[in-house]
Amino acid sequence: HPTESGFTTDVLALYDWAKARSGNSSILFWGHSLGTGIATNAARKLQEERGVQVDAVVLESPYTNIREAAAHIPITTIYRQFPGFGYLILDSLALGDMYFRSDENVKVLACPLLILHAEDDAVLPPHLGRKLFETARSTYKDKTKVKFITFPEKLGLGHDYISFNPELPALVK
Q1: Which of 72, 120, 159, 160 is catalytic?
Q2: 121 is catalytic
Q3: 117 neighbors 126 (Cβ within 8 angstroms)
Q4: Is residue 61 within 8 Å of 35, Cβ to Cβ?
Q5: Which of the following is catalytic: 33, 72, 120, 160?
Q6: Which InterPro entries does UniProt cross-reference here (predicted)?
């Protein structure tokens, strides 16, 4: 069964593999949607357990934590009105050891952090990305290391197409 710690361990193994072969090249963690929780977990674990900072973390369409994300995704809209929604749906993630607490992880990170969110994201509302940014910005010692970029609705990037924006390489640089 997939687990949060298993995902994190896999990313750290991939990091070790890439680091051993990259020479002096920068290595960053780039997470999209659910992967943003995995990226912040891995960056935090690398920092706390090995004393190593990843060169940067990029979070595309992120959320604060999996419980809050599940409470806001459109598919749960109809179920929110029923008694027991919190216990049956939201708490079941915790029972499976799935927390993905990016909001807690960014409080201890010190590497550059870039958060990207499209205003027309219909899966994870942009306010979750903004809330994550505000949490990080309030705790980072060097505030210049935390950036938040939104993409206007008129671009039609939604949840899945930020990577298609031709300006993205320049923005990440």
Answers
A1: 159
A2: yes
A3: yes
A4: no
A5: 33
A6: AB_hydrolase_fold, Hydrolase_4
With contact defined as beta carbons under 8 Å apart, do 59 and 135 qualify?
A: no
- Report which residue type is found at 66: I
160 to 34, 72, 116, 122, 157: CA distances (angstroms):
12, 17, 11, 10, 7
Mean pLDDT taken over the chain: 93
| Predicted confidence (pLDDT) per residue in 32-51, tens digit | 999 999 999 999 999 999 99
Specify whether 142 is catalytic: no
Identify which of 103, 104, 130, 100 has the alpha carbon closest to the alpha carbon of residue 118: 130
Catalytic residue among 97, 121, 138, 142: 121
Is residue 1's pLDDT more than 90?
no
Q: What domains lie within the chain, and their CATH numbers?
A: 4-14+26-155 (3.40.50.1820)
What is the residue whose two structure tokens read 């409470």?
71
* More reliable by pLDDT, 173 or 134: 134
Q: Which helix (H) or strand (E) holds 136?
A: helix 126-139
For 22, the token pair is 């990259």
Q: How much is the pLDDT for 82?
A: 77
